Description:
Quinone Oxidoreductase, Chain A, domain 1
Amino acid sequence: MPAVMIYAAGDLRIEEANRSTPAAGQVEVSIGVGGICGSDLHYYHHGGFGTVRVKEPMALGHEISGTVTKLGEGVSRLAIGTRVAINPSLPCGRCVYCHRGMRNECLDMRFMGSAMRVPHVQGGFRSHVVVEFEQAIPIAGSLSLGEAAMAEPLAVCLHAVNRAGPLVGKRVLITGCGPIGALMILAARFSGAAEVVVTDIGPFPLQKAIEIGASRAINIATDAVALEPEKADKGQFDVAFEASGAEQAAHLALEVLRPGGTFVQLGLGGDFKIPMNLIVTKEIDFSGSFRFDSEFALAVDLLGKGLIGVRPLITATLPVEHAIQAFGLASDRSRSMKTQISF
């Protein structure tokens, strides 16, 4: 079966991989669509991120959907032909964090397309994958496989909303408008935010932000003082979601948050300095947000009911034989929001 494999930075190959048989409690899924995530791009361009490095060939991809083609012994909740979105997280269910209900912090997590452990956990950019049956979530008949593949990044944003607390009537700032920042707009709007302001340094993502419901989209590169009025009276925003992973963006968000406001960091980047005195003196609630848990099933449900629409964010879908071109396109923020690969 065809698979999109990473060997090292810049070394991406489309090659044949072995197709496995589902064991008891597992299902085989014929992958229809896979979305290229920021972490996939980090593996492609840099061979990993932080201390995580590719040490052996690994199939990329964790934003995937498809159709059930085989059932392992004992699987009765799914049928062959069922269209599903695949939850790439497989927590152990036994460790202290799983028992505390923090399964996204599992000590023995198996996350698809991740080099955090050796052997690496193979990803979903393959024509067929085998997963535990509970990872395969049926989707609504009205939902395309491309939209269903957006459930994973949407779940990341729904988890960030849960970390922030109620957003009804709140003024929300989102720094960074890549795919996660854009989906944060949709999640914040669904959660009742009265105003959603977005910042970025590129015109294309900011144009998309307005298209999907942002109240205001600010290009910080060309209008650096646009948020100066929001610093009045110690800050005007109730909640900030930092989705860029950039130190400068985090500083700006903290400056325009009101006393008692909430800051949620979900963009991954390198280490950076934060103005601790500002956090203390304004009594800002500072939180991290990592992956998701029950929010994945919620994302599938909201997409299926049409309560959140992600179609405008899917800017290109290329066949698997053009996967390398797809990665190049996904790296171009001037014309790509979410690039997907079809199998």
